[in-house]
Amino acid sequence: MPMLFPPDISLPNSADALIDCVINSGDLHSAAAVYELAQGEQKKQLRDLLCEERRNTLLLARWEHTPAAVLQMLAEIDDETVRLRLDKNPASRAGTLNTIYKNSGHDRQLLCLLTQHAHSSSTLLKRLAMSEDDIPILKSIAAHPNTDANTLMCLEKHYPGMFDNELAVHAETPTELLETLYQRGNCFIRSAVVSHIRCPEHLLDSAFNETDTTILRHLAANPRLDSEKLAVLAQHDDVSVLRTLAGNPSLGAELANQMIQNSSNSVRRTLASRTDLTAENLQRLVDDDDHWVRQWVARHPKLPDLLLNQLASDQNDEVRRAVTRNPQTPVDILRQLAEDSSVWVRAGVAYQKNTPADVLSTLSEESDVDVLSGVASNPNTPQAILIRLSGSQQTDIRRGVIINPQAERDTLLPLLEDPYYLHRLLLVSNPALNDNDRWSLHDDPDLSVRFMVFKWFAQKYLQL
Amino acid sequence: MKTFLLIAEHRRGELRPISLEVIAAAQELRQADDKVVVAVIGEQAENYVADLSVAGVDEIISVKTGSVEFDPDIFESVVTSLMEKLDPEVVLLPHSVDSLGYAATLARKGNYGFATDVYGLQYDGDELVATRSGYDQKVNVELDFPGKQCVLLTIRPSVFKATEESASPTVSVEDMTSIGSRSTNLEFVEAGGADDIDITTVDFIMSIGRGIAEEANVEQFRELAEMADATLCCSRPIADSGWLPKSRQVGQSGKVVGSCKLYVAMGISGSIQHMAGMKHVPTIVAVNSDPGASIFTIAKYGIVGDIFEIEEELRSHFE
Ligand SMILES: Cc1cc2nc3c(=O)[nH]c(=O)nc-3n(C[C@H](O)[C@H](O)[C@H](O)COP(=O)(O)OP(=O)(O)OC[C@H]3O[C@@H](n4cnc5c(N)ncnc54)[C@H](O)[C@@H]3O)c2cc1C
Predict the structure, then answer these.
(1) Between B219, B242, B246, which is nearest A296 by CB?
(2) What global pTM score does this model have?
(3) Cystine design at A36: which of A69, A182, A280, A361 (Cβ 3.0–4.6 Å)?
(4) Which domain holds residue A189?
(5) Is A436 a member of any domain?
(6) A394-451 tens-digit pLDDT
(7) What's the B208 CA to ligand 1 centre distance in angstroms?
(8) From the CA of B234, how far away is ligand 1's center (Å)?
(9) How far apart are CA B40 and CA B10, in angstroms?
(10) Which domains are delineated in chain B?
(11) What is the pLDDT of residues A55-81, one digit of tens each?
């Protein structure tokens, strides 16, 4: 690759110097990184660099990292393919999408993409709803989370019954429309209405008398149900209704503790993560025959140490693994599990934030990639071990060190020359490194690393 | 008339499915009067003859050697000796770790034409043309082998559809137990690791991504995968956080799920790097709350919705 930057160029000491450095290099991706920072003549030069070749413009319009300001500038270019790519780019902001709309010439594909883009504004969606009559486009508008209540009502007014599926789940659908949907909808529409945050009380009452289990299941999940209704639903014989009820936060301790006797595994599995269970029932779940129940309860935030201890000796690996992932598990149990026969359990200990340094040191002698990656990323791991692991042949383990918030500068410095570009990319924003360390990557052979370096410095100047 | 020599592969007493796919690959090239010979090598080679007796095979050579499992030295010597005897125009091997252990040496020593990881085969007139990918799977490269009397190719798994039609090829037995190896087998160590599932060999995968939000939610997708008889896999952020073993990661820096037929992606955006491991799967179902998620560009069925709601519906279905 030809050299883009002169050798040994030192860290620029101002925004202007940073931008000049990019302009002199002619590097497309670095230019995209500093574009927002530039003004006047420098901005024009960068724009020329970015738009000099159509190929590059197309590339930037699609690239996932292209900054919003560059996408906005590209939206002004009169090129349909560029617009199409911008429309598909998740990073395009509302302003860029408005510009695309202005210049779209009612191209159906562009409009369709606009109605699906997460950043399309409610104003744009409204305008599209008023001016378009294409059903798939209108359907996307009805489904778009940014569409407001007025627009939804308009759609219903002009196309009654056409968008019931979308309207029944849309968070902005007004109460009166929900009533209409419930009256005319099938069991799925009625289920969606029953789960809707704005569902009026009397519709919940009507749903209570339904016999369809899909509707009752959705009703059973609704935290607005009163204790009387919850108690009646607890007598239902459909497992899916009972399981959903078991997860309802409003169920209350009394009902939850009653339901623990239920013969369905899936009901007890759901109950096992509730925090309102009595000690006696927690014990019952710990003794449950179903290993998934024990697995769920092993993660329970209020499980007494005694029960955690019991589960730490469970014959099922996944249950013991779940104990290692419980943030409340005491250190002595973690010590015991660090010597477990299952690698996946020991890996759980290696990733656990409460595991002490001496246990991590012992685990660092293992050869398994999951255990070592856990040790490498654990903030309690001693620095000397991180240094050793940073020289591992395995990329996952070195990456563990890079994402470890306690890894010190000296540990990370050799990793600036890591052969895996993702690692160098991650290091650019690592707070343990200083600006000169970061700058050493400005002429990296990988374009995304160079981009990240210049973007990091551009952001720094933008925040000043 | 041309002769095609195919090498079968077995591990721990089982014929590997790729062996039958290599037979299928040979059918792309053979003419009516050509001969397809399959060699199976090992101390108990005869055990695999019945499974290899499928349509399209003319002869099976069961080569008895002194080693039960694969040994690169022994395979290299046996295949060299078979090639001297049969003088094949084309030798097809599975693209696998076993073949990587001896195929290149064999090709170099014999000065044969050579290409690895081939997924397309045809004759252009008399010229054999093999297709493989280049530039990190971005382009298809067509290779021919001018001036080569014999071409040796390793065949990508899960590309050629194995036939189930049985047949009665002639079977001959060769004793090559005298061939020695430079390596000695001391003991068999079971591959360790947090996981005993090789995701490259399973056909139904449910995969979770950052959409699952927190570690506690992994459990319910594990449960669902078990109910559905699927193997639970993940995108990189999940494996990097230690929520599932690294061996379950699909993608560029993870694994390519070569045998997968159905891939259900839950809360995965569909980055290029993830798709590198699964975009070939014939049926991809994607569940994502963002209609613009890239995963939908390769999905056969897309559900724009909340993975937890879909999980709930699927669970009720399985109950
Ligand atoms: C060199 C390199 C190698 C890489 N190798 C790999 C690799 O091998 N494998 C890999 O996977 N990645 C790899 N990556 C990382 C890759 O670039 C992506 O960062 C990663 O794939 C993103 O994972 P994700 O889709 O789970 O997360 P995200 O991109 O964050 O996507 C999460 C998705 O979940 C959706 N979502 C959120 N909540 C919900 C909900 N409740 N219901 C429905 N949907 C929801 C969101 O809309 C989003 O689309 C690599 C990257 C690099 C640079």
Answers:
(1) B219
(2) 0.76
(3) A69
(4) 177-271
(5) no
(6) 999 999 999 999 999 999 999 999 999 999 999 999 999 999 999 999 999 999 999 9
(7) 9
(8) 9
(9) 8
(10) 3-175 (3.40.50.620), 199-318 (3.40.50.1220)
(11) 899 999 999 899 999 999 999 998 889
